[in-house]
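May I ask you for just one protein sequence along with its backbone structure tokens in two labelled lines?

_____
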Amino acid sequence: MKNKTKGSNAERELLLKLYKNGFAVSRVAGSGSSTLPTPDIIAVKNKKGFAIECKTKSGEYLNIKETQIKELEIWENLSGFKSYIAWRLGKENWYFLYYKKMNKTKIAYSIKKSEIIEKGINFSNFIKSL
């Protein structure tokens, strides 16, 4: 499966999980190619919302370009909604991390799989925390 298709399918999967937990949700198709700062998913419940940048990369590290993080920051500042990175580990395990908790490297923002499990929040606890 191509990476773009894999990513789109993961976004749809997370969108449905959020919807089933009572959130109004929207997936921004083509968010990575937009000229405007745009997250992958926007979710709102009880007048509180958040944005999500979804990732499904396998391996021990997740690296996100600095420009993507800057776009999340801009979107957060304009909307007032917090922005999160959601990394799917395995087939169904989603972990969420506030984007500002990513580690800055010379060329990107990065986090190890073990770090997101330790510092992040799994899906059910993320939903409960909102």
Summary: The domain at 3-129 is CATH 3.40.1350.10 (Trna Endonuclease; Chain: A, domain 1). Residues 3-20 form the longest helix (18 residues).
